[in-house]
Amino acid sequence: MTRSLQNNIKAIYLLGFFTGFMVVIPVFVPLLQGHGLSMSQVLQTQALFALTIALCEVPSGYLADLWGRRNAILVGSGLNALGFFSLLWADSFVDFLAYEFILGLGFSLISGSDLALLYDTEVYLRERGLRGGAGPGKSLSRLIAVEAAASGIAGIGASLLLLWSMDSVVVVQAFTGFAPFLLAMLLVEAPRPGSGKDTSTTGHGENARRIIDLLLFGKPVVLWTAFAIAVFGLLAVYVFWIYQKYWEMQGVPVSWFGYIWAAFALTVSLSARFSEAVEQRLGYRQLLVLIAILPLCGLLGMALGSGWWGVMFGFAIQVSRGLSMSLFYEALNRRVPGEFRATVNSLVSLGVRSIFIVTGPLLGMALDKQGMETTLFGLLAIFAPLMGLVLVPLVVRIHREQGQEANERSATTAA
């Protein structure tokens, strides 16, 4: 059992790598445009992906908590493999909608389950003095870094494959998409630390009440961390789909898209990998300020810049992405009981997807009708106040939590 759990950590890292290794993503917008889709239609396919996840995210996360994270990851990876394989014959708007629907089902099952399984594996091994990985917090950062690095390598692979044709990118994606499914077979379910209550025996209504109590009436830091993840995650999704159109408008050849994507992904990977060291150096308040300033500078620089100078400002957004993902998800998972960790992670992702369902197509329409510069200034005007609205209360509640913990330690010592 111990040996299998120790292997879990390596298997989840590898699974994260191949889940992030999607050579089709760095050139996805040109791929769909080559099949006659407009930017509005491209964003509509992503809205369907978001809608599918929104409908399935929380039920799938709850099923993962109820029936096992390993089973959820296995089924989700199988659906993703099927979705990527469908690209071999996809040629129309409807075909790409079907592709996004299948992937939405798959990713909704994996989302949150991999983080929860990794975290629980690390906690279980550490509580028993057994050798595991880097520890619960660092392991989450490393998983994020691995997935980002995989995206970067996929970007390089996409550019190299474009030396042959766009079809070669699709073929490689169709077959490498089966790797996560094979790796998921190696996983084992980890005993879950926490309150000791079993989600499979307490009743669904009682479980729902406990989850709501946790988010709304439990530790305030949990709720505001979830808000922060939603705001920064939503901005990340927007720029994710803006980048390729932006590069095209700046005159960057499509053959370079993969290399730029690789550099952006490597930036996220390194930022996530060293986020803990940056927090120790700056402190959490200064780090949160940095996380907010960087993407705003990036949007402004992209709007005002031109050519490669505008492209370079995208790196600021990527640095913030790596730091924020690592910081916020570690803070969230550390404060959430093990039996509901996958459900809470899914709820957080649901917030992002739900908003994107409506706003994604609007973003595509803005790009088609208003242009890139106006759209970027619009995002800047929206997200500058939003970041302040979530980060200021978060800092206040972290400060209060630290004060309460210090008082409790003092009382314990005095007793």
UniProtKB/TrEMBL annotation:
List the InterPro entries. MFS, MFS_DHA3_Transporter, MFS_dom, MFS_trans_sf, Sugar_transporter_CS
Q: Which Gene3D superfamilies match?
A: MFS general substrate transporter like domains
User: What membrane topology does the annotation report for this chain?
Assistant: Multi-pass membrane protein
Which Pfam family, an example, fits this chain? Answer: MFS_1
Q: Where in the cell is it found?
A: Membrane
Statement: the UniProt record of this protein carries the keyword DNA-binding: no
Molecular function in Gene Ontology? transmembrane transporter activity
Report if keyword Metal-binding is assigned: no
Q: Which residues cross the membrane?
A: 12-33, 45-64, 71-90, 96-119, 140-164, 170-188, 221-244, 256-275, 287-305, 376-396
- Chief place where the protein resides: membrane
Cellular compartments per GO CC: membrane
What SUPFAM superfamilies does the database record attribute to this sequence? MFS general substrate transporter
All residue ranges annotated as the Major facilitator superfamily (MFS) profile domain in the record: 4-396
- Give the keywords, sorted: Membrane, Transmembrane, Transmembrane helix
Which PANTHER family did the record assign?
PERMEASE, MAJOR FACILITATOR SUPERFAMILY-RELATED, TRANSPORT PROTEIN-RELATED
The protein here is known as MFS transporter
